[in-house]
Design a protein that fits this description.
Length: 131
């Protein structure tokens, strides 16, 4: 059976993905102007899908690789947030939603690296099926 921290990680991380979809949708027109339609669609659709898939691989299959890839994506999001500049965080609704999504993702990382989740992932790796 999955530990409570793993269940809460899934909930919080998927809530962060939901806010990230809203954030990227609000930025879609700007993204088209800067990067063009293909990259705008890729950022708006593929990044949240990849993130959600990683979350589900972590919580449903106990994947350590997905765990570290998720942590890497969150680290990249932190770098991107500070590249925007903190003064823009409260002036723009899209950026404020993005900061809220990032806060949820950072909170989910705390749950992801809880000792109970680490133990559960070790058990999953040793051969028993995650519940």
């Amino acid at each position: 059976m999955r530990p409570a921290a793993a269940v809460w990680f899934e909930r919080v991380a998927l809530a962060g993905v939901t806010l990230d979809v809203l954030h990227l949708s609000l930025l879609f027109e700007r993204r088209i102007a800067v990067d063009g339609v293909p990259l705008a669609v890729a950022f708006t659709v593929l990044i949240p899908l990849l993130t959600a898939a990683l979350v589900l691989f972590v919580t449903r299959r106990g994947s350590r690789t997905a765990r570290w890839l998720f942590a890497g994506l969150v680290a990249l999001a932190v770098v991107a947030a500070f590249n925007i500049g903190t003064e823009a965080w409260s002036r723009d609704v899209a950026v404020a939603v993005g900061v809220a999504a990032l806060a949820l993702q950072l909170g989910s990382l705390n749950l992801l690296f809880a000792p109970s989740v680490t133990r559960w992932m070790r058990i999953c790796r040793e051969g028993s099926r995650p519940a």
